[in-house]
Every structure is written in C-alpha cells, then in structure tokens.
Amino acid sequence: MTDTGTQLQPSRPKKKRLTRRQKRRLSRGVQYVVFVAAVAAFAATADWGRLRNQFAQGSIARQMFPDVITLALKNTVLYTLSGFVVGLVLGMVIALMRLSSVGPYRWLATVYIEIFRGLPALLIFIFVGVAVPLAFPGTEIVGGTYGKVALALGLVSAAYMAETIRAGIQAVPKGQMEAARSLGFSPAKAMVSIIVPQAFRIILPPLTNELVLLFKDSSLVLFLGVTLEERELSKFGRDLASTTANSTPILVAGLCYLLVTIPLSYVVRRMESKSQEAIR
Amino acid sequence: MSRPEIQVSDLHKSFGDNQVLKGIDLEIGQGEVVCVIGPSGSGKSTLLRCVNLLEEPTKGQVFVGGTEITDPDVDIDAVRRRIGMVFQQFNLFPHLSVTENLTLPQRRVLGRDKAEAARIAAENLARVGLSEKADAYPSSLSGGQQQRVAIARALAMGPEVMLFDEPTSALDPELVGDVLAVMRRLAQEGMTMMVVTHEMTFAREVADRVVFMDGGVIVEDGNPAQVIGDPQHERTRHFLSRLLDPAMAEVEEGTSDRVGKDRS
C-alpha cells in the first residue's frame, strides 16, 4: 500500500519514468531504425543486375523515341482533352439540370450522376466500344476511335464534373444572385454572367484534378482495339514490352504519365493555396 | 400630390409559421426620402425586399411607378431596372473590376454599347467620388468604398427609385460618413429613396419622413422631428432610448430580442 500516495497524485512522475522528450526521441529513433532496416533488407535481397536488365535497358528505351512522345503521349493528351471537353459540357448541363426548379430535370440528373459514378470506367469503355455497335448495327460514332474515347471519357467524367460544378455554383454567395436580379438580370443571364464565372474560379482545382484522373483513365482505350496510329502510352508501352520481352517500355510509359500528372498536381496545389489566401 | 412612386397596401409576408409582415400600408411620393427604422426582426428589411420582389409577398400589393409588381404577369426584370437596390453586404461582383461592375449590367441588361456604358460608368463613379478606383477590384477596396461603388452600380442603370438595406451597418464607424454623404447628395438631387437604417442622425437630417416598425406593423409614421424628437408611442420611445444611449439600457426580460429573427 505504499503506492497509494502516487496513485492519488498521478501528476507526480514515478522515478525512472521517461520524460516526454525522451519518449519522443525514443519513438523517432525506433522509426528510423525500422526504415533503415527495411531499405537495407531490400538492397541486399534484390537482384540488381536483373532489375536493371528488365527495367532500364538503355537501347530499348532509346528505341522508343521519338514515337513515345510524338505518337503515344500525343494521343493520350488528345484523348484526355477531348474527353474533358465532352465531360465539361455535359457536366455543366447536368449540373444546371440538378439545380433546376423543374422536378423531372433534377431526377434525371440525379439518376445520371448516380449511375455513372457507380460504374467502373472500364465498363463504360466496353459499353461504348462493344455494346453500342452490337446493339445498333450500322451506327457509327463520329470520329472513329477518337470519338468513342471522347464519348466514353466524357460520360464518366460528366457525372463527377456535374457534382463539382453544382457545388461550385452553390458556393457562390446568395447575395450575388440577389444583386444581379436587382439590377434586372434574368435568372439565366445572371447565371451565365455572374454566377458561373465565379463558380469556375472556385472549382478550378477540383476540375484540374479531374483532368489528371482522365489522363490516367485514357489508358482504358486499350480495350477498344486501336490501330497502330491510335495507340496511346499504355498500349504503346505494353505492345513494345511484349515484342521486346522487356519491362523497360512500361517504365518509360509510366515516366511519361508522371511528366504530365506531377506538374498538373503541383499547379492544383498552388491554386488551392492561392484560393485559401483569396477567401475574403 | 401626384401618384405615389412606391405604394404598398395590406402587405403580408410569412416565412413558414413566422409572420414577419402583418399588413403594411405605405406610400412614398416622388422625390421623397423615407427612412424605415425599428428593432431587428421588426420586418423592415423584409418590407424593403418586398418592394423589389426579392421576397415574394404572401398577400397584398406593391406598386412601383404605377406598375403593380405583385401582379404575377408583370415582367419583373423590366421593373427591377427602374429600382436600384443597395445591400448591407455590398454584393459587388468580385470577379469584375470596379468599372466592369458598372458596365456589365448596363450592357447585358439594358443593351447599351461598350462606349456608352463606359461613359455612364465613369460619370457615376465620379458621382460617388471614386473615379481613381475605376480599375481596382472590389477586394482591394475598403467597405465604405465598396458600398459607394455598389451605389454607383445601381445608379448607372438609371433607376427612378433607390432602396437601401442597412447600407452602413457592415461598415467600420469611420467609413460610414462617406457613404452617408453620397446618399445625402442623392437625396438633394431629388431621388426617391427608401432607406432601412439605424443612422438616426441621417434620418433626422435627410429624411422627409421616418417610419418606425415593430413586430411586423408600422407603429409610427411622420416627419423626422416628430417621430425621432417627440415619439407618440411607447414602443418608439423605448426603441429610440436604447438606440441613442445603449449604455443606459437596463437588463430586461423578453423584450428587445423577442422576435429574434433578423432577416438582413
């Protein structure tokens, strides 16, 4: 029962207890040790020669240029941008429908958003590439593969963008609409001239994020069956990887993606911190 | 007297079960300046917002310049062009420069060409003493400057009537004077004005009439010297004493905040 005193006064440190600073130091020390051990174990067990051979063969990498840029990256960018434009236009329409005072428009928009956010992008690609031509023989989607990709990516991204745009419109203070209406703007004119421009400033970062997502999703073109001229980064890398029986092309294709996505993500972060400052 | 510029008859407005306006009758003649005063929650802002139909009245009629704006078939956008509105929170368009704030509505709503809109914008900026801020953005202006731009924006549309919804309530005390000076000048130029305000000095000096509202009805309506200087009703006296000398107010139960719903 000699301990009773200390139990009643828990604030008094027991002897040999670590101080807070010592605990922090110990915890950090353990984390560093684990990290160094893991790196060392990996370095010791990895077969470096084989890895270099598989992933970093200079001759194969060189052989990919300039096509990986002039053809594959170009097509990836093209697919992404066309899908983004379709998605933006469609998303804008759906967002406005979602905010409409007419019930059926709201329901239709909600149903669309729920369906296309719930389906895997791959399924949409298969739907556009396989199901539509089978179901409606003779119909031709304008623009061939480019049209199909724009449609598939557009359908998917429109659902996400519609929700983003709606949130942006609703984030514009109510007083802006009231001021516009008081000046004699019709609801539609006020929306176009006053509300939407402000909404787009708010949603520029999430829209750019959507662009990054689309950039990656454009790889699903793989499942549409494309000609040599229509190949984008993933397909290009995979084809070359199988012909050369080497993984270097995959690595190069991956680096090409990062070449675009990392700067874009950086831009998004810059915009986000800027808009944080701009909040009045 | 010629026909009233603003005429409100038997106006009722409810938000759900909350009856905010309980039968308002009010006439404002051409060139008249009327200040509406009253405790928060008395319905004065709601009344003002009913005059340009930002709030849809539950019952009753509102006429502006002889047009019944409560008529469901009236072109409300056309009527609103004749009514300038100034908000407590300014509501300038933050994505546009000061000049664009004035020119965009003129061009989109009135269809004026670029040169004419710019000329009228410059005139009205000069009128509120802010010509040098023409290219600034609203966020770089002080509250008082923003409010003067908002007044200029409303004036650029050439309104016959100006409504002010507590135009100085969101301003730092030292910035109130500039805005009131602009409003005083406007009153002297003969603009018909309806001003919801707590500025008693302004009401006393500039207004032709002062209307005191409480609990959704007009309690007292008369010339400023009478309503502010010699109020006839106990409620008016009580409100004014608290407003003019807030430090002297006693703690009391269930009076001033009893409605407790400020719409502004």
UniProtKB/TrEMBL annotation, chain A:
Leader sequence residues: none
Domain ABC transmembrane type-1: 73-268
Any single Pfam family the record assigns to this protein: BPD_transp_1
Transmembrane stretches, start-end: 26-46, 77-99, 111-135, 141-162, 183-204, 250-268
Topology with respect to the bilayer: Multi-pass membrane protein
Family stated for the protein in its record: Belongs to the binding-protein-dependent transport system permease family. HisMQ subfamily.
Name of the protein in its database record: ABC transporter permease
From TrEMBL, chain B:
Subcellular location: Cell membrane
E.C. numbers: 7.4.2.1
Keyword line: Amino-acid transport, ATP-binding, Cell membrane, Membrane, Nucleotide-binding, Transport
Entry GO CC: plasma membrane
GO MF annotation terms: ATP binding; ATP hydrolysis activity; ATPase-coupled polar amino acid-transporter activity
Bilayer topology annotation: Peripheral membrane protein
Xref: SMART domains: AAA (SM00382)
Pfam families: ABC_tran (PF00005)
Every ABC transporter domain range: 6-240
Domain of life (superkingdom): Bacteria
InterPro entries, A to Z: AAA+_ATPase (IPR003593), ABC_ATPase_HisP-typ (IPR030679), ABC_transporter-like_ATP-bd (IPR003439), ABC_transporter-like_CS (IPR017871), MetN_ABC_transporter-like (IPR050086), P-loop_NTPase (IPR027417)
Enzyme superclass (EC): translocase
SUPFAM superfamilies from the UniProt entry: P-loop containing nucleoside triphosphate hydrolases (SSF52540)
Catalysis performed (reactions): a polar amino acid(out) + ATP + H2O = a polar amino acid(in) + ADP + phosphate + H(+)
Family: Belongs to the ABC transporter superfamily.
Designated name of the protein: ABC-type polar-amino-acid transporter
